[in-house]
C-alpha cells in the first residue's frame, strides 16, 4: 500500500479550509491542486499552515509542466 503523507496533508488542508467540493475539482490536476493549497493557506486562520514561496511554486510548476 502506498500512502502519500504530503499529498494527504495538502488535501486535508484544502478540504478543511475550502471544502470537499473544491478539493474534488482539483484532484487530478497537480498545478490546480497546488494553487488551491496556496489559496487555502492564505485564507486559513491556522498559523501552522504554510504555503509555498513564490519561487518554490514557480519551480514546482516548471518541474511538472516542463
What secondary-structure arrangement, pairings included, does this model have?
Layout: H1 5-18, H2 20-26, H3 30-43, H4 54-65
Pfam families: DUF5700 (PF18958)
InterPro entries: DUF5700
In whole angstroms, the N-to-C terminal distance is 29 Å
Largest sheet: none
Strand-residue proportion: under 5%
* Anisotropy-based shape: globular
The total number of structural domains is: 1
- Give the number of helices: 4
Could you list the spans in which at least 5 consecutive residues all have pLDDT below 50?
none
The assigned structural class equals: mainly alpha
Count of individual beta strands:
0
Radius of gyration using CA atoms only: 12 Å
Helix content: over 70%
Element pattern in H and E:
HHHH
What is the mean predicted local confidence, pLDDT? 85
Describe the structure.
Helix 3 runs antiparallel to helix 4 (54-65). This protein has helices at residues 5-18, 20-26, 30-43, 54-65. The chain has 66 residues and is mostly helical. It is 71% helix and 0% strand. InterPro entries: DUF5700 (IPR043754). Pfam families: DUF5700.
